[in-house]
C-alpha cells in the first residue's frame, strides 16, 4: 500500500515517517497523515509513489501552506481535506484542486 515493507522511515515519495492516520476516497486513492514529515501524502490507487498534497516535506511551520505534526485527516464529499495540525493547535482545510 504505502511505505516500505521493512519498516524503514524516510521523506522520499515512497517512504513515510510516523504515519498516524489515513483515509480513502471513492476511487481508492489513499491519503496519509505523515506526521514526522509534516505533510499529507496522496497515493493514487495502485501506485507506490506518493505526492505531497498538504504541507512541505520535513518543513514545519504555522503559515497557511505548512503543517506542524499533522495527526489526523478526513475528507468531505467534495474531497476537501481536513487536517488536525496539532503542532499549530488548528484544523486546516485544503480545497480540492
From TrEMBL:
Q: Which PROSITE patterns match?
A: NHL
Give the stretches traversing the membrane. none
Q: Name one GO cellular component term.
A: extracellular region
Q: Which SUPFAM superfamilies match?
A: Calcium-dependent phosphotriesterase
Gene3D superfamilies given in the database record? TolB, C-terminal domain
InterPro entries on file: 6-blade_b-propeller_TolB-like (IPR011042), NHL_repeat (IPR001258)
Q: Which UniProt keywords apply?
A: Glycoprotein, Repeat, Signal
NHL repeat ranges are: 16-46
The entry's protein name is NHL repeat-containing protein
State the organism's lineage.
Answer: Eukaryota, Metazoa, Spiralia, Gnathifera, Rotifera
Amino acid at each position: 500500500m504505502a511505505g516500505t515493507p521493512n519498516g524503514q522511515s524516510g521523506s522520499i515519495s515512497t517512504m513515510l515517517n510516523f504515519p498516524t492516520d489515513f483515509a480513502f476516497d471513492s476511487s481508492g486513492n489513499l491519503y496519509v497523515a505523515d506526521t514526522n514529515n509534516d505533510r499529507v501524502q496522496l497515493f493514487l490507487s495502485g501506485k507506490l509513489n506518493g505526492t505531497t498534497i498538504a504541507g512541505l516535506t520535513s518543513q514545519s511551520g504555522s503559515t497557511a501552506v505548512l503543517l506542524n505534526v499533522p495527526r489526523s485527516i478526513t475528507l468531505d464529499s467534495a474531497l476537501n481535506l481536513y487536517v488536525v495540525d496539532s503542532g499549530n493547535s488548528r484544523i486546516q482545510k485544503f480545497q480540492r484542486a
